[in-house]
Amino acid sequence: MALLEMIHFDLVITDLVMDRIDGIGGLKAAKEKNRETMVLILTGYGDMGSAIGALRLDADDYMLKPCEPDEMRIRVSRCFDRLEAARKLKL
């Protein structure tokens, strides 16, 4: 979390369940720092409630683990495409 305060990130990839902070806390912190930061949540818990909750809190994508490297690349690429499109609209 300290890194989110010091450095601007275009994309944050976080796990939903971690020891010190959960992914929802990371999502909230990233979006509070910069609404444009894209957040991709990973989880090994395929619970629809957590997916809906993350998306309602403005997660940009949500993936179940284990995930295939190609699928991860596609999702990351989509996040950057949406970020670029949003930045162009601001101009």
TrEMBL record:
<feature type="modified residue" description="4-aspartylphosphate">
    <location>
        <position position="15"/>
    </location>
</feature>
<keyword id="KW-0238">DNA-binding</keyword>
<dbReference type="InterPro" id="IPR039420">
    <property type="entry name" value="WalR-like"/>
</dbReference>
<dbReference type="GO" id="GO:0006355">
    <property type="term" value="P:regulation of DNA-templated transcription"/>
</dbReference>
<feature type="domain" description="Response regulatory">
    <location>
        <begin position="1"/>
        <end position="80"/>
    </location>
</feature>
<dbReference type="GO" id="GO:0032993">
    <property type="term" value="C:protein-DNA complex"/>
</dbReference>
<dbReference type="GO" id="GO:0005829">
    <property type="term" value="C:cytosol"/>
</dbReference>
<keyword id="KW-0805">Transcription regulation</keyword>
<protein>
    <recommendedName>
        <fullName>Response regulatory domain-containing protein</fullName>
    </recommendedName>
</protein>
<keyword id="KW-0902">Two-component regulatory system</keyword>
<dbReference type="GO" id="GO:0000156">
    <property type="term" value="F:phosphorelay response regulator activity"/>
</dbReference>
<dbReference type="InterPro" id="IPR011006">
    <property type="entry name" value="CheY-like_superfamily"/>
</dbReference>
<keyword id="KW-0597">Phosphoprotein</keyword>
<dbReference type="GO" id="GO:0000976">
    <property type="term" value="F:transcription cis-regulatory region binding"/>
</dbReference>
<dbReference type="Pfam" id="PF00072">
    <property type="entry name" value="Response_reg"/>
</dbReference>
<keyword id="KW-0804">Transcription</keyword>
<dbReference type="InterPro" id="IPR001789">
    <property type="entry name" value="Sig_transdc_resp-reg_receiver"/>
</dbReference>
